[in-house]
Design brief:
The complex is a heterodimer of chains A (about 625) and B (about 775). In chain A, about 70% of the residues lie in helices and about 0% in strands. Chain A is mostly helical and about 625 residues long. Among the domains of chain A are: about 180 residues; about 180 residues, Alpha Horseshoe (Serine Threonine Protein Phosphatase 5, Tetratricopeptide repeat), CATH 1.25.40.10. In chain A, helix 3 packs parallel to helix 6. Chain A starts with 10 loop residues before the first helix and ends with a helix. Chain B has about 775 residues and is α+β, with helices and mostly antiparallel strands. Among the domains of chain B are: about 140 residues, Lipocalin; about 130 residues, no CATH class; about 100 residues, Alpha-Beta Plaits (2-Layer Sandwich); about 100 residues, no CATH class. Chain B is built from 17 helices and 36 strands. Chain B has a six-stranded antiparallel beta sheet. In chain B, strands 1-2-3-4 form a four-stranded antiparallel beta sheet, with no helix packed on it. Chain B is elongated and about 155 Å long. Classes of the chains: A mainly alpha (about 625), B alpha+beta (about 775). At the A-B interface, helix 2 and helix 8 of A face strand 18, strand 20 and helix 13 of B. Chain A: InterPro entries: FANCG, TPR-like_helical_dom_sf, TPR_rpt.
Chain lengths: ~625, ~775
C-alpha cells in the first residue's frame, strides 16, 4: 500500500473560507425582503453556525496566526448573540476570547471586573496587529452594556471607547479597500464603524434621557445636541430632537421646546410622541386652539397603520430598539392610546366652544367602542373613562347642540345597563385622604356601587334637562324626581360617626363622589324648581330652588330662578338680594374640573341678567 | 472493549461483549494446599433474556494461570479482536504474571474459543510493568508506549518490536482498510527546528504491518494531535494513492470533532473531561450514535448525524455495544457501579439504543437513594434527546417546504415562458437582463476610454518621433516660430551650469481658449538639452540643442498653478471653468449623513479656498489630482456635492465617499448625462461670442501700432502671475481708451467685417442654445 505525501488544506484557510461563506450568506439574506419571522429564524440559524465555527477554532490551542481569525469569528458570533438578546452568552464569549489571547501572549488572566479587565487587554494588545480586532469586541461589549442599561460601565471606560471610536472611524476606508481585495482575510458580518456610530448616538440619547429624568436638563441638552449632528438612523435623529424639546420644556422655554418637537416630527413622521409632547406644551401655555389642533393631528397620526407597527427591524443586525431600552427613555417616548386621545379631543372641543365638532368626536369614539370588545378597550386604554361616563358626556354634548332625543337615548342606555346593579342603600364614607378616593383602590366593589348610582342619577338628570328643553314640563319633573329618589339612597358617614344626612358645608373638594352627589342633588332640584315655575306652582318652585341652593350654593340657575320666584311672589327686596348674591359668584372658573354632564344646562328657559338688573334698578328708587 | 476505569475498581470483573453476549473475567487466587496457591482465571458468559429483562448466565469456565505460590496474577486488559490465523473475532485477555523471584514481568495473551475454552495465544516478557496505555488490536496485536517509544507484539511478529522513531504525543488506532491496519500518529520529536512552523510534515503516520510512513495530517490535522485523547476511524479509502479518512476524535478541550479528509467538519461540546474511548452504536433506522466513555465512569452519547449530545450518564462501570437483544441492530449496555459485586450477575444496568429500546434494572438489594437519582435523570435526558430529534425533523420539514416553494416559482416561470413562446411574445425575464447590460456597455464606452487615451498618448511619446531623435543636434532651432517667453528660457538653459540645466524641462505653448475649455491640449514639445560629452566640453560653454519631439496631448489641469487660488477670485472661476464639473445629489432616506464637510476636510491635502470658503481644494497625490469640491447640505438626510475634477478622480473620490456614507444612501447626478455635451457646446459658443466681440471691437478702436504690440504681448506665459496681471492691465487700458474717445471714427470696411463675423458667431451661439434647450 502506498500513501503518497499530499498537502492537506490548512485549517486556517478552511476556517476563513467557512467564515466568509457564512458572512456572504447573511449578506444575501439581508438584501431580501423577508418577514420578521423569517429574519429571526435566519438569525438563529446563522448564529448557531458561527458559534459552531468558533467552537471548532477554539477547539485547538490558540496559535499566533489563528488569533486574527479567531477574534473575527468571535466578533461575528457575538454580533448574532447580541442581536438575539443573548447578552450573558456574549459576555461569556468576551471573557473566553480575552483569556485565550492573554494565554497566547503568555500573560496571566485578569480579574472579572469588566473595566479593569478591558483596560488590561487593550494595553496588552496596543501595538499588535490584534489591536483593531480587540476594539471590535470592545464595541460589542459596549453594545451589551448599553442594551442592559449599564451606562456607568460605559462612562467608566469612556476613554477607551472614544479611542475605539477614533480608530474604527479613521481606519475604515483603507481597511475596507484592502480587505475587499484579498480573499484570505476573514470578513465581518457588520462593519464595526457602523456599529460604533450607532452606539455613540444611542449612548448619547440614553445618557441624555437619564439626565433629563434626573432633572439635569442643561447637561442632557448638551448630550442631545451633540447627538443630533451625528450620522444616525432617522428615528434616532428624531429622538434627539424630541428629547432636546423635553429639556427645553423642563427649563421652561416652551417656544424652543415646540421648535424641537417640530424638528423631530419633520425628521421622522413616525415620531408621534413629538406631537403628544407639543400638545402638552400647548396645554401648559393654555393655548387651547393649538392644543386641540395638536390633539387632532395626534389622533390621526395614531390612526395611521404604520404608527403602531414597529419600524422595519430585520434589515439591520443590531437595531436601535435593541440598544435603547431604558425606562427613562421609554417614558419620554410613550404616547396614550388613540382612543384616549380622541376622548381628550372631544372633551376639549366641547369645553371650548366647538361643541358640534366635539359631538362628532364623541360619536366617533362611541362607534369605535361599540365595534370593539369592551374588555379589550378597557385594557388597551387605561386612561379612558368608563363607558357609562362616556355616554353621559356624549349625551351632555348632544344636548348642547340641541339634539335632546339622541341625548335621551344615550341616557336610557346608561339607565338600562345600571338598573339591575343599583344598590338598595349605600353608605358613603369620608375619604381619609385626597388621593385615596380618586384611586378608588380601597374597596373597589363599594366604589363601583356608588359610581353606578351616580351615573344612573346623572342619566335621569340629563333626561330631565332634555325634557325641559323640549318644554315637556311634566316629563322633566318626573325625571328630576327619579334622580332625587336615587340620590336619597346615599347616606354619608364620617369616620366614627353615624351615617347622616348631608349638608353643603361638608363638601369641600371637587371631583369626589360627595361633590358629585351634591351637585346632582342641587341641579335636579333646580331643574324641578324651574319646571314648577313654568307650570306656575310657585311655592313648590321656591321650596325646590331653596333646597337646591342648600345642596349646591354656587348653582347660578337656582339662584337666579329663586330670585325670579321671589319677585313674582312680590318679595322684591329678597329677590334683588338673591340675584346680587348669585352674580357675586365667580362663575365657571372651575368648569374644566367638573364632569361635562354635571355642568349647569345652557339650554331650556333662561333669565336675561340685563333684564333682571333693570328690574333692580326700577326697584331701588321706589 | 473495556478500559480500566480507575485503580479503585480493580476488584471489578473485566467485561467484554461478543456475539450479543456479555463475558466477564475475574482472577481468583485459591489456596489449594498449604504450600501452593492456584491462580485461576474465571469467566462467565451472560446473555440477555427479554422475558425476564435480565442477563442470565449462559456458560462459565475457568483456567489455571499459575500454580506458583509466589506468583501474582492480574488481568491487564481484555478486548475482542480478530484472530488472523483462525479468521474469527475472539475475546482476548492480557494477563500479567509476576513472580517474586524472577526479574521483570511476564505477559500472556489468552483467547476464548468458540467452545468456551481459554487458550493461550502468545507470551512475552518485559523488564517494566505495562501501565494503563495498552491496546489490543486485530491480529491479535498488543501495542503500548514506553519512554517515548511505541512497542508492539503479535503472533506474527513473534517478539516485542519497537517502532523505529521517537514520537511525542502518539495516538494509535485501526484503519478499516482491508483487514484492518494498525496505525500510529505522532509528532516527530524535532526539538531544535521549526516549532512555530505548523507544516504538515510534523505529524507523522506509521503503519505497523508494513512499516510505511505517511502524512498524519490526512487523518488528524496538526494542532489536534497534541490534544486528542482517543480516536476512531470511521472509514478510510485510498484515492490515487492518497489516504482519505473520516475520523472522530475526542480532545482535551471537551470536544468531539468529526474530521473528513483532514478538514474539521463538525464539532460538539462534551459534558465531561478526560475521554477514554469512543464506540459506535448503529441503531439501524434511527442512525448512528457515538458513545464516549470518560474517566471516573462518565458516559456520553452523541448522534452522528446531528452531532449533538443525545444523552449522558455518570457512575458507569463499563459500556458495551452489541446486539444484546438479537434485533439486528446495536444497543449499548451501561453497567452501573455497584458497591458489592458478584461476578455472575449484573447489579444495575441500562440497555438502550435511545430510540425505542430501553431496559433498565436496578438491584433490589441496593439502597434506593444510590441509584434513583441516576435513572430518572437519564430518562429526562433521553426525552431531551428525543425532543431535539423532533426539532431537527421540523427544520428538515421547513427546508423541504422552502424547496417546494422555489420549485413552484420555477414552475410558474417556466409556464409563463412557455405561454410566451406559444403566444409568440417576447419572454419577459430576458428583457430585464438586456436592459441592465446595455446600461453597462454604454457607460463603459463614454467614460473610461477618454482617460485611457490621454494616458496612452503620453506614454507613447518616444515612439511618435523616433526619426528625429537621431538628427537632433543638426535640427535648426530657428525653423520654429517660438514665442518670446520660451526663447528666454532657452537662453537661461544655455548660460547656467547648475542642476537645472541637466534637468528635463517641458514647456508647452497653447492658445487660451482650449486651455480654458477642455482638460486636454495638443501642443508641440521641444526638448532643450546640453550635451555633456567630456571634461573639455564642460569647460567651454556647451552648445544647447533643441529637439522637436512632435505633438503631444497634455492634461493641462496638473499644470495649473493652484497657489493663485487664494488670492484672486477670478482664478478660482477659471479653474472652475477649466475642470470638468459634476453635481451629485446625495440622498439617504433612513440614515442621517453626519458631517460630510469635515470628512472631506480630513482627507489628505485638503484645504479651504480663502476667497470662496464654500469650496474645498483637494490637491493630494500624484499629478493631475487637482480637485475642487463644494458640499451643500440641504437637510441632515440630503446634500448636494459639486465636484470639479477629472472623471477618473471624481469616480475615485465618489468611491471613497460611498464607503463612508450610509449603506442605504443613493447618489445621483443632478443633471442628466444628456446635458453634459450640450452644456459644454453652449458655453463654448457663448464664450466665443464674447471673446470675438471684445477682440473685434478693440481691434476696431485700436490704432495699427497698438495692434501690433498687442499681438506680441499676447503670447506670454499663460499661467504666471505677471502675465495675468499684464492681461488685466491691458484690458483696463482698453476700457479707459474707449472712455476717452467718446465717438470714435470707425473704418467702414472694418466695421462691416466685424458685423459680419459677429453675426456668424451669434448664429452659432443660437444653434448651441437651441440644442441645449431641447
Amino acid at each position: 500500500m502506498a500513501h503518497k505525501l499530499y498537502k492537506p488544506v490548512s485549517l486556517l484557510d478552511t476556517w476563513i473560507q467557512e467564515n466568509n461563506n457564512l458572512v456572504n450568506k447573511w449578506k444575501q439574506q439581508e438584501g431580501g425582503m423577508n418577514t420578521w419571522n423569517q429574519d429571526q429564524s435566519n438569525l438563529k440559524c446563522l448564529s448557531s453556525e458561527f458559534h459552531k465555527l468558533l467552537m471548532k477554532i477554539q477547539g485547538v490551542p490558540l496559535l499566533a496566526d489563528h488569533a486574527q481569525l479567531e477574534l473575527t469569528v468571535m466578533y461575528n458570533a457575538c454580533v448574532y448573540s447580541v442581536a438575539l438578546s443573548q447578552f450573558s452568552e456574549a459576555e461569556l464569549l468576551f471573557a473566553q476570547a480575552t483569556e485565550r489571547v492573554l494565554q497566547m501572549r503568555g500573560e496571566k488572566p485578569v480579574t472579572s471586573d469588566p473595566p479593569v479587565f478591558w483596560r488590561k487587554i487593550m494595553k496588552s494588545l496596543k501595538d499588535t496587529d490584534l489591536n483593531a480586532s480587540i476594539h471590535w469586541l470592545l464595541c460589542l461589549q459596549w453594545a451589551v452594556w448599553l442594551a442592559t442599561c449599564r451606562l456607568k460601565m460605559i462612562l467608566e471606560l469612556q476613554e477607551e471607547l472614544s479611542s475605539a471610536l477614533d480608530l474604527l472611524c479613521t481606519e475604515v476606508c483603507d481597511d475596507r479597500r484592502r480587505k475587499g481585495k484579498s480573499p484570505d482575510t476573514p470578513l465581518l458580518v457588520l462593519d464595526p464603524r457602523r456599529l460604533v456610530e450607532l452606539l455613540r448616538v444611542c449612548t448619547l440619547i440614553a445618557h441624555g434621557a437619564e439626565k433629563l429624568s434626573e432633572g439635569e436638563s442643561s447637561e442632557a441638552l448638551n448630550d442631545l445636541q451633540n447627538a443630533s449632528s451625528l450620522p444616525a438612523p432617522r428615528t434616532l435623529v428624531a429622538y434627539t430632537h424630541l428629547l432636546s424639546g423635553s429639556c427645553f420644556a423642563h427649563m421652561s422655554h416652551p417656544q424652543m421646546a415646540l421648535q424641537c418637537y417640530r424638528k423631530a416630527l419633520e425628521t421622522d413622521c413616525h415620531c408621534v410622541s413629538a406631537l403628544y409632547q407639543s400638545m402638552l406644551v400647548y396645554r401648559q401655555l393654555r393655548n387651547t386652539p393649538a392644543e386641540i389642533q395638536a390633539l387632532r393631528l395626534l389622533h390621526s397620526a395614531l390612526m395611521l397603520p404604520s404608527a403602531t407597527e414597529p419600524v422595519i427591524a430585520g434589515t439591520h443586525l443590531l437595531s436601535q430598539s435593541l440598544l435603547l431600552c431604558s425606562q427613562s427613555l421609554s417614558s419620554f417616548l410613550s404616547v396614550p392610546s388613540a382612543l384616549s386621545v380622541l376622548h381628550s379631543l372631544a372633551l376639549k372641543c366641547v369645553l371650548h366652544g366647538r361643541v358640534s365638532e366635539g359631538v362628532e368626536h364623541y360619536l366617533d369614539l362611541l362607534a369605535v367602542l361599540h365595534s370593539e370588545d369592551q374588555h379589550q378597550v378597557s385594557s388597551k386604554a387605561p386612561h379612558l373613562p368608563r363607558l357609562p361616563e362616556l355616554y353621559l358626556e356624549a349625551g351632555a354634548a348632544l344636548l348642547m347642540v340641541q339634539r335632546p332625543d339622541d341625548c335621551i337615548t344615550l341616557c336610557e342606555e346608561v339607565i338600562n345597563t345600571t338598573q339591575d346593579l343599583l344598590p338598595e342603600r349605600v353608605v358613603l364614607e369620608e375619604p381619609e385622604q385626597k388621593g385615596e378616593a380618586i384611586n378608588g383602590d380601597v374597596c373597589a366593589e363599594h366604589e363601583d356601587k356608588v359610581e353606578m348610582l351616580l351615573w344612573s342619577g346623572a342619566a335621569y338628570l340629563l333626561q330631565g334637562h332634555c325634557h325641559t328643553h323640549l318644554k315637556d314640563w311634566k316629563q322633566a319633573m318626573t325625571h328630576y324626581t327619579r334622580c332625587m329618589n336615587l340620590l336619597m339612597k346615599v347616606r354619608f358617614k364620617k369616620i366614627g360617626c353615624q351615617p347622616q344626612i348631608l349638608s353643603a358645608d361638608m363638601v369641600d373638594e371637587q371631583g369626589t363622589d360627595l361633590c358629585v352627589l351634591q351637585r346632582l342633588k342641587g341641579l335636579s332640584l333646580c331643574g324641578r324648581g324651574i319646571c314648577f315655575i313654568q307650570t306656575d306652582q310657585l311655592r313648590e318652585a321656591l321650596r325646590d330652588l331653596q333646597l337646591s341652593l342648600q345642596a349646591f350654593p354656587e348653582c347660578v340657575g337656582a339662584g337666579l330662578w329663586c330670585g325670579e320666584v321671589l319677585w313674582r311672589l312680590g318679595r322684591r327686596q329678597e329677590a334683588a338680594a338673591c340675584w346680587e348674591k348669585t352674580w357675586s359668584f365667580t362663575t365657571q372658573s372651575t368648569a374644566e374640573n367638573i364632569r361635562l354632564y354635571l355642568q349647569e344646562p345652557q339650554t331650556g328657559p333662561l333669565l336675561d341678567s340685563i333684564e333682571l338688573r333693570q328690574k333692580i334698578q326700577e326697584l331701588v328708587p321706589t | 472493549m473495556e478500559r480500566l476505569p480507575s485503580e479503585d475498581w480493580v476488584q471489578n470483573p473485566h467485561r467484554v461483549s461478543s456475539c450479543g453476549r456479555l463475558i466477564s473475567f475475574l482472577c481468583k487466587h485459591a489456596s489449594a494446599t498449604n504450600d501452593s496457591e492456584i491462580s485461576e482465571l474465571i469467566f462467565s458468559i451472560l446473555s440477555f433474556k427479554r422475558e425476564d429483562s435480565a442477563f442470565l448466565k449462559a456458560a462459565d469456565g475457568e483456567a489455571v494461570i499459575s500454580r506458583a505460590r509466589t506468583a501474582h496474577v492480574d488481568i491487564v486488559k481484555c478486548k475482542c479482536a480478530l484472530h488472523v490465523q483462525k479468521r474469527v473475532t475472539t475475546p482476548c485477555i492480557l494477563v500479567t504474571k509476576r513472580s517474586k523471584k524472577a526479574q521483570g514481568f511476564k505477559y500472556s495473551l489468552l483467547t476464548l474459543s468458540s467452545s468456551n475454552q481459554l487458550e493461550p495465544c502468545f507470551e512475552f516478557k518485559l523488564p517494566y510493568q505495562l501501565t494503563g496505555d495498552v491496546s489490543i488490536f486485530n491480529g491479535p496485536t498488543v501495542l503500548w508506549t514506553h519512554a517515548g517509544y511505541v512497542y508492539y507484539t503479535s503472533l506474527q511478529a513473534g517478539e516485542v518490536k519497537q517502532i523505529p522513531m521517537q514520537l511525542s504525543h502518539s495516538i494509535s488506532g485501526e484503519l478499516p482498510l482491508h483487514r484492518g491496519q494498525i496505525f500510529i500518529l505522532g509528532l516527530q520529536n524535532l526539538s531544535e527546528t521549526s516549532t512555530s512552523d505548523q507544516s504538515t510534515s510534523q505529524t507523522l503516520g506509521y503503519l505497523v504491518q508494513n512499516g510505511q510512513v505517511f502524512d498524519g495530517a490526512v487523518v488528524l490535522p496538526y494542532p489536534y494531535i497534541t490534544i486528542t485523547h482517543c480516536i476512531l476511524v470511521l472509514s478510510a479509502e485510498e484515492v490515487d494513492g492518497v489516504l482519505k479518512a473520516a475520523v472522530v476524535a475526542a480532545t482535551s478541550k471537551q470536544q468531539l470533532i468529526y474530521i473528513e479528509h483532514g478538514i474539521v467538519k463538525d464539532v460538539c461540546h462534551l459534558p465531561f473531561v478526560q475521554p477514554e474511548d469512543i464506540q459506535v452504536v448503529d441503531t439501524g433506522r434511527s442512525g448512528c450514535l457515538f458513545v464516549i466513555s470518560f474517566h471516573e465512569g462518565h458516559v456520553c452519547a452523541v448522534w452522528k448525524e446531528k452531532f449533538q449530545v443525545a444523552s449522558h450518564w455518570s457512575g458507569v462501570s463499563s459500556v458495551h455495544v452489541d446486539d444484546f437483544m438479537g434485533y439486528g441492530t446495536d444497543q449499548m449496555l451501561l453497567i452501573f457501579k455497584d458497591p458489592d459485586v458478584e461476578s455472575s450477575s449484573l447489579g444495575s444496568f441500562l440497555l438502550t439504543d435511545l430510540c425505542g429500546i430501553s431496559y433498565s434494572v436496578r438491584d433490589p438489594l441496593l439502597p434506593a437513594p444510590n441509584t434513583s437519582p441516576v435513572l430518572p435523570d437519564n430518562y429526562f435526558l433521553t426525552i431531551q434527546a428525543l425532543e431535539s430529534r423532533l426539532q431537527s425533523g421540523l427544520t428538515v420539514l421547513q427546508e423541504l417546504q422552502r424547496e417546494l416553494r422555489v420549485k413552484e416559482r420555477v414552475l410558474q416561470q417556466s409556464l409563463q415562458a412557455l405561454t410566451d413562446v406559444v403566444s409568440e411574445r417576447e419572454p419577459i425575464i430576458t428583457q430585464h437582463e438586456q436592459v441592465s447590460l446595455s446600461i453597462l456597455t454604454e457607460v463603459g464606452q463614454s467614460s473610461v476610454p477618454t482617460v485611457i487615451q490621454t494616458q496612452s498618448q503620453v506614454f507613447w511619446l518616444p515612439m511618435t518621433s523616433p526619426s528625429s531623435s537621431s538628427s537632433s543636434s543638426s535640427f535648426p532651432a530657428s525653423s520654429f516660430t517660438e514665442p518670446p517667453a520660451k526663447r528666454s528660457k532657452q537662453h537661461n538653459a544655455g548660460r547656467n551650469h547648475d542642476l537645472n540645466t541637466c534637468r528635463l524641462a517641458v514647456t508647452a505653448v497653447t492658445r487660451l481658449t482650449p486651455l480654458l475649455n477642455s482638460g486636454c491640449v495638443k501642443c508641440h514639445v521641444m526638448l532643450h538639452y546640453v550635451q555633456r560629452q567630456d571634461a573639455f566640453a564642460l569647460m567651454s560653454s556647451p552648445t544647447p540643442a533643441v529637439l522637436h519631439c512632435g505633438q503631444v496631448a497634455l492634461d493641462i489641469q496638473s499644470g495649473f498653478q493652484t497657489q493663485l487660488l487664494n488670492e484672486v477670485k477670478e482664478d478660482l472661476m477659471s479653474l472652475l471653468v477649466m475642470l470638468e464639473h459634476w453635481t451629485f445629489r446625495i440622498d439617504s432616506p433612513d440614515h442621517s449623513l453626519g458631517d460630510i464637510d469635515s470628512w472631506i476636510q480630513n482627507r489628505v491635502g485638503c484645504k479651504r479656498v480663502e476667497v470662496s470658503p464654500e469650496y474645498l481644494l483637494l490637491n493630494s497625490s500624484g499629478p493631475s489630482a487637482l480637485m475642487l469640491l463644494c458640499w451643500h447640505q440641504i437637510n441632515p438626510f440630503q446634500g448636494e456635492l459639486s465636484v470639479h475634477s477629472s472623471e477618473l478622480q471624481m469616480l475615485q473620490f465618489l468611491d471613497s465617499l460611498l464607503a463612508y456614507l450610509p449603506i442605504s444612501c443613493t447618489v445621483q447626478p443632478v443633471k442628466g448625462t444628456r446635458g453634459q455635451d450640450e452644456v459644454q457646446i453652449f458655453s463654448l459658443a457663448l464664450e466665443k461670442e464674447v471673446v470675438s466681440l471684445r477682440e473685434s471691437v478693440s481691434l476696431l478702436l485700436c490704432k495699427e501700432e497698438d495692434n501690433r504690440r498687442k499681438s506680441n504681448d499676447k503670447t506670454s506665459e499663460p499661467g504666471s502671475v505677471d502675465s495675468l496681471q499684464r492681461c488685466r492691465e491691458e484690458w483696463h487700458r482698453d476700457v479707459e481708451r474707449s472712455k476717452t474717445e467718446l465717438s470714435p471714427l470707425v473704418d467702414v470696411q472694418r466695421y462691416r467685417k466685424l458685423s459680419q463675423s459677429l453675426s456668424k458667431v451669434q448664429l452659432e451661439g443660437d444653434l448651441a442654445a437651441l440644442l441645449y434647450t431641447q
